[in-house]
Design a protein that fits this description.
With 144 residues, the protein is mostly helical. It is built from seven helices and no strands. The longest helix is centred in the C-terminal third of the chain and has 23 residues. The protein starts with a helix and ends with a helix.
């Protein structure tokens, strides 16, 4: 009996967590949206910014904003939220809370930003740029 449990546990442990299957996205979407709503509030994003970062229209974002709204997110949307959640955590490890939440709205002269705010740069650059900004913050705080 123990041998059967070990094989079952090994199969579960060997399968990496991802967003490719609809079952995984369905299970994780509610929590991801809850986290994203909190990030939007902490970063004081406009509806246009929140929608653009999530990769949806403003009207779709407005439907997703209420805590009671539920939707199975796409792989793309889950990846965006994952990147932004990691960025949020990295900023809060690097700065005091107020600066961590403001940093994304400040003009930045770094090569990733070209005198734009990190928010504007991420909106323009999409997922690849979100991941670049997350790696940048992780590198600055010594996480890489």
């Amino acid at each position: 009996m123990l041998e059967m449990f070990d094989r079952t546990q090994a199969k579960t442990a060997a399968r990496p967590q991802g967003f490719a299957t609809e079952a995984d996205r369905d299970r994780l979407s509610k929590t991801a949206l809850k986290a994203y709503r909190r990030i939007v509030a902490h970063w004081d994003l406009t509806s246009q910014q929140a929608a653009a970062l999530l990769g949806v229209s403003v009207s779709t974002w407005e439907r997703l904003k209420p805590e009671t709204a539920e939707k199975t997110l796409s792989q793309d949307q889950m990846t965006r939220i994952s990147a932004l959640t990691g960025l949020y955590k990295g900023l809060h490890l690097l700065f005091a809370d107020n600066m961590a939440d403001r940093w994304l709205s400040l003009e930045n002269t770094g090569p990733l930003f070209d005198r734009r705010s990190p928010i504007a740069a991420m909106i323009e650059g999409g997922i690849p740029h979100m991941l670049d900004v997350r790696r940048y913050v992780d590198a600055v705080r010594g996480g890489l």
